[in-house]
């Protein structure tokens, strides 16, 4: 398994897009940091910092693209045969790809988090203190860590779905679209979702509602709308993740290539 | 392994490699079963199926590094590169490769882990004559050292130079199994004559018990067996005042034998 993960990482580091996206994210974060400083009245620098200078959004974008292509590229390039005919079990091949994506997402999160800290102490040094209280009861730094971790859970809920779709359709286009739409759908239809959930309470267990987890971590009052506690949202997210990855596993194991 | 397009050659190879979900039957390599879920027997197997899978963002050498097992040294990898004469472009990105260059990389990938059993699906695809010959030498050398090859190809003249055993597949079924010589000798050999009076010669030859093959006006084809002697025929015809202008032995080749075999096999469609 270690060998397989190493091989996947080898492919990942030799892809140009891996590095281009990283650089792109840092550039955009920097731009946002300056915008936040120069327009401190219209933008709330604290909120922008907590959102990692939009870094989190880009992590989601790039991870959706990377996760869909890590599976679909093998079909696209015809390398799936070379990959699968070896002595390794099919399950191992798939799991090695998941692990690689997990490592990649951790790398992205850390990069965004650390770079946001750097931007804070350089560009936005005088605007606010990291130890200041923010919103609910934590300091800005703690809030940022909690929000980022919660968003990481949501990210993986989306990614597990993307990995499944890429596996089913052998094409990244469909997986990417659904992934991105899924991620943004929650902010677009949240009010509609709230009405629907109020009417049919059992619908609170639908996966889109689980996407509210990071929001509810940031503002716990959201529980009156999601009708689930923060922990229930976390568990729900993990269960859906397990279901999506489980289906992927079964599909991948039985597929003829 | 030969057979018409769609006969199931690639499919059989995929099944052997555990890539294809076969509904019934059992495949074993060296006594170990192979299926989609049991792959242990494939440790010593190398393969190239249909077309080589290539990552456009990796160089040829990186492909070989990626797929080589831990036990394979850099030097051993380079040996294969040299044998396939890929040295001049092996460090270039594979997306810039031509068809034949990709094919060579695919073959090198199949061989890189020194497998005991190599499956090559139409390996000569896109190779130039020199590369073809090189490939033949490589295969023959490895075969001598004990490597087993399963090769499918439509280029019979190439196969003829390589193989010990032949399997002919038609519509998913084996219609011939054996060596190449037997398939060829099953077919008829004939002697083709050109004479000053073909019609008369035909009559005379038939009267004397020779079996003729229907053919167009220009010449006479006589079915040859062990008893057919050229001297007898020349004597027979010259005593009847017929001049022989040209004699040829026609050995029906593998292609003809194969086409006959496929035409006459009893495999039903569906
Ligand atoms: N034994 C079989 N029973 C049913 N269908 C089969 C069988 N073998 C192959 N097929 C089907 O026949 C089709 C073509 O098979 P395959 O690709 O193996 O042909 P091929 O012999 O490699 O042809 P080509 O010479 O064109 O490469 C596939 O759709 C495959 O699913
Ligand atoms: Mg084929």
From TrEMBL, chain A:
<keyword id="KW-0812">Transmembrane</keyword>
<protein>
    <submittedName>
        <fullName>Membrane spanning protein</fullName>
    </submittedName>
</protein>
<feature type="transmembrane region" description="Helical">
    <location>
        <begin position="173"/>
        <end position="197"/>
    </location>
</feature>
<keyword id="KW-0472">Membrane</keyword>
<dbReference type="Pfam" id="PF12730">
    <property type="entry name" value="ABC2_membrane_4"/>
</dbReference>
<keyword id="KW-1133">Transmembrane helix</keyword>
<feature type="transmembrane region" description="Helical">
    <location>
        <begin position="47"/>
        <end position="73"/>
    </location>
</feature>
<feature type="transmembrane region" description="Helical">
    <location>
        <begin position="17"/>
        <end position="35"/>
    </location>
</feature>
<feature type="transmembrane region" description="Helical">
    <location>
        <begin position="138"/>
        <end position="166"/>
    </location>
</feature>
<feature type="transmembrane region" description="Helical">
    <location>
        <begin position="94"/>
        <end position="118"/>
    </location>
</feature>
<feature type="transmembrane region" description="Helical">
    <location>
        <begin position="233"/>
        <end position="252"/>
    </location>
</feature>
Automatic annotation (TrEMBL), chain B:
<dbReference type="InterPro" id="IPR027417">
    <property type="entry name" value="P-loop_NTPase"/>
</dbReference>
<dbReference type="InterPro" id="IPR003593">
    <property type="entry name" value="AAA+_ATPase"/>
</dbReference>
<dbReference type="Pfam" id="PF00005">
    <property type="entry name" value="ABC_tran"/>
</dbReference>
<dbReference type="InterPro" id="IPR003439">
    <property type="entry name" value="ABC_transporter-like_ATP-bd"/>
</dbReference>
<dbReference type="GO" id="GO:0005524">
    <property type="term" value="F:ATP binding"/>
</dbReference>
<dbReference type="InterPro" id="IPR017871">
    <property type="entry name" value="ABC_transporter-like_CS"/>
</dbReference>
<keyword id="KW-0813">Transport</keyword>
<feature type="domain" description="ABC transporter">
    <location>
        <begin position="2"/>
        <end position="196"/>
    </location>
</feature>
<comment type="similarity">
    <text>Belongs to the ABC transporter superfamily.</text>
</comment>
<dbReference type="GO" id="GO:0016887">
    <property type="term" value="F:ATP hydrolysis activity"/>
</dbReference>
<protein>
    <submittedName>
        <fullName>ABC-type multidrug transport system, ATPase component</fullName>
    </submittedName>
</protein>
<keyword id="KW-0547">Nucleotide-binding</keyword>
<keyword id="KW-0067">ATP-binding</keyword>
